[in-house]
Specification:
By secondary structure, the chain is α/β, with parallel strands linked by helices. It has a domain of 104 residues: 2-Layer Sandwich (Nucleotidyltransferase, domain 5). It has a 5-stranded mixed β-sheet, sandwiched between helices. The protein is elongated. The chain starts with a strand and ends with a helix. The mean pLDDT is 81.
């Protein structure tokens, strides 16, 4: 059983004239079986030679690994240069300073965290100079991967060069819980 195009179907011909016998002409037959093989060959070729899209990654600068027996004292930083972001699911709690931090809340919109970061940068630049602001990012348990990517995107949009990803402390979790209860 071959796939064929053309040829005699075997049905009686309509409108045959009686009389003079004519030699019947055979129509050419085209066997389509090799075309199926060719189609699969081309399909296999293009599937195997096509490059798939490669996932894009964000570069993250990580400090050098410290051995257990090494003692490294962290650098002294003025708390006026630092803003701490506690990233939750679709929202960001933030505060400045260490002594009695005043917790505030915002979101990922243009008038949200971006505005907060730009205003804070202006304050730090007036007081300490250009490029001195440091952002500490702490992910809460409720945060999703999308929130992590969104906050790193905001760092790129506002061109914030100095930021750190740090684990959230129990005191900060309690601070957020107290804030939620008070509102």
């Amino acid at each position: 059983m071959a796939a064929e195009v053309g040829g005699d179907s075997g049905a009686p011909k309509k409108g045959k004239k009686k009389g003079k016998a004519r030699k019947s002409k055979k129509r050419p037959r085209i066997d389509m079986t090799p075309m199926v093989d060719l189609g699969f060959l081309l399909l296999t070729f293009f599937v195997l030679t096509t490059t798939m899209s490669t996932p894009n990654t964000m570069p993250v600068v990580v400090p050098p690994k410290i051995e257990k027996n090494e003692e490294v004292e962290p650098p002294k930083i003025s708390e006026g240069k630092v803003i701490t972001l506690l990233v939750g699911r679709g929202k960001i709690y933030y505060y400045t300073g260490i002594e009695k931090p005043e917790l505030r809340i915002t979101d990922f919109s243009r008038s949200g965290i971006r505005k907060v970061l730009l205003e804070r940068r202006a304050e730090v630049e007036d007081r300490y100079g250009k490029g001195e602001m440091i952002v500490i990012i702490k992910m809460m348990d409720e945060a999703q991967y999308k929130d992590f990517v969104d906050i790193l995107d905001e760092m790129a949009v506002v061109e914030q060069k100095k930021y750190a990803l740090v684990n959230i402390t129990p005191e900060e979790v309690a601070l957020v819980e107290d804030y939620k209860k008070s509102t």
